[in-house]
Amino acid sequence: MSSPPPTTFCFLLHDAARLMRKRFEQNARELGLTRAQTQALAYLARNEGVSQCVLADMLDLEPITLGRTIDRLQALGLVERRPHETDWRVWLLFLTEAAWPVVEAIAPISEATRQEALAGVSEEDRATLMRVLETARANLIEKMSCSVKKPKARSASG
User: Fold this and answer.
1) What pLDDT, on a 0 to 100 scale, did the predictor assign at position 27?
2) What does the radius of gyration of the chain's CA atoms come to, in whole angstroms?
């Protein structure tokens, strides 16, 4: 008989995030969109006019994966691609008028999902949780930026 997975900070954080994504998807079924599509719309609403590559980076997706999601959103009439003014290879992404009611419907579904997840958690504990997560995030961002190595300057001799 195998033992249960360890209950560590990383395991709990990952599992809670996974379950929140699944629960959001259940709560958002009425929108008729996948979680990836709603996430792309939500990020695009805050960053209209970004390139597909930049949005893919924001969502931590491969550009080709996001491309398929954007194709579907474009086919639904929710997103439009506009050519970049100076770079013909780049498409900029914008929401259509039809997308805004969908974007507005996402926020209450997200809030309801958060409330379900945090039911029974006091306001004080919620504030502590947010501080801990913000600190962990800041620590990781700092370590990641420190690990980016700059190229060594080449000496004149070679």
Assistant:
1) 92
2) 20
